[in-house]
Design goal:
Elements (H helix, E strand, L loop, with lengths): L2 H20 L14 E7 L2 H13 L3 E2 L8 E17 L6 E16 L4 E15 L5 H28 L5
Parallel strand pairs: 1-2, 1-3
Antiparallel strand pairs: 3-4, 4-5
Amino acid sequence: MSTFFRAFVLMVIVLQSVQLSGCGFRLRGSADYPMKQVFIESVSAPRMAYVLTRELQNANLTIAESKNNAEVIVILSHEILDRRTLSVSSFTGKLEEVELNYRIHLSAKKATGEVLIEPQLISLLRDYQFEETAVLAKADEEIMLGEELFREALVQIMRRLQMLRVG
């Protein structure tokens, strides 16, 4: 490789680094949250509450034992994963396409009662083709898509908590 080509490649890398740093880009690392103590209240959302608790602890937040000790109270409710038929073959009458819908309600408030996140629905959809000849594989695909929807909802909740104005 010629010296000119190496210098050119190095210059391109440096310019890209400068551009990325100038636009606010940064690598994923530990997330910053505007609070230190959180209480998670779950109303029919036990799985999300458990995983969110674990993720927040990994981010060095303290999970409060009671609402009174928390800076922020996160309320999760009505966690549901629905399966719906999207299409059926007009010739055979057999299932062809399925839709998965993961939904959870989220709200947050201070211990004083001040609302930080108005009650809102997080709803995520995925659909897939169903093949009768690969029932086991499609069942596994449905499980994987359900997990993907759950993880995506978790990330959305965590981002919304990062954006709170607690102070």
